[in-house]
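Standup notes, protein team

Yesterday: finished cleaning the Ictalurus punctatus set.
Today: Prostaglandin D2 synthase a structure.
Blockers: none.

Input for Prostaglandin D2 synthase a:
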Amino acid sequence: MKFFILSQGAQTFALTRISMMKITLVSITVTIALLLEVHADVLPQKNFDLKRFAGRWYRVGLAYNSPGFARHRNKLTICMGVVEPKENGDVMMTVWKTKSSICQKEVYRYEKTAVPGVFTYFSTRHSRVKDITVVETNYSEFAVIYKHRKFNREFSQVSLYSRSQKLRPEVIEKFKKYATQHGFPEESIVIPPPADNCPLARH
């Protein structure tokens, strides 16, 4: 049997590598813990029912923590979307929104996850996968949707959906409170007006 004796320099190098590995593992563990802590309270609607969630919705409120959002907030209007469940549990979301004074139609495919009420979709605009969570809904009146993505840093949106363009003031205040409790400043929260130049959004 042969024994190898490391020189003092080799021993120092080996100990340094081990120390660096330990630091890296600790850093990874801390990072994961922080991420879990940040999103631990973003939970989906209990016993989420996709069939009941299907149909027409209006986005009547939005909170967005992107730095460039504030200068565009006054351009936002209420937009309309239709949720169409697929047999495999995915969702086709058709949205009509106003862009540059033109009513445009966009179609998204939300892919189901192992957790009911949580979906993902690939944003062609940002070339990133986004997470979408139906945080709360009573199906017949309102829904709160949390959207999250990573792009250089983490960005999040909270949207308030309604079955009609008018929603009870107490529900709107509840939405604003939820947004501020999750770190969205007041200037990032918008309750937009109807889209007068987008007829589909008025039906």
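Follow-up from PR in the comments: The beta strands are 55-64, 79-85, 91-99, 102-112, 118-123, 128-137, 142-151, 153-162, 189-190.
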